[in-house]
Amino acid sequence: MLNKTDIQKRLTIPSRSLKCFPPLSGDKHMVDFQVRDEDGRVWKFRIYTGKSNKKYPKPVLTKGWREFVCYKHLGTGDKVAFYMDKEDAGSVNYRVKAERAVKLFGVVYGHEPIHC
Q1: Could you tell me the pTM of the whole model?
Q2: Measured between alpha carbons, how far is 10 from 34 in angstroms, rounded to an integer?
């Protein structure tokens, strides 16, 4: 579930989920990767873990994230899920799905839009 910082700056990813994203090689603390959304559009994101704490990395999505948020009109309370698909040939494809908060009788629950 997205919070205000996720909407306005970057997406914080739980450290335990880092294994589900492209691996960081050697002493690299970031990697760019492509993700396809539910409409088939390809997004380019950068995952960044910072240089200081290798034992407990704090991964965030930076590059490309705000463009995705604005394009999808996401707000606080909305949800974003990432999926990793392993192909038979050994390649990996990544998918992303955005889910808007629920609107019931004209009232939006769990969604505070941020204007881009």
Answers
A1: 0.80
A2: 16
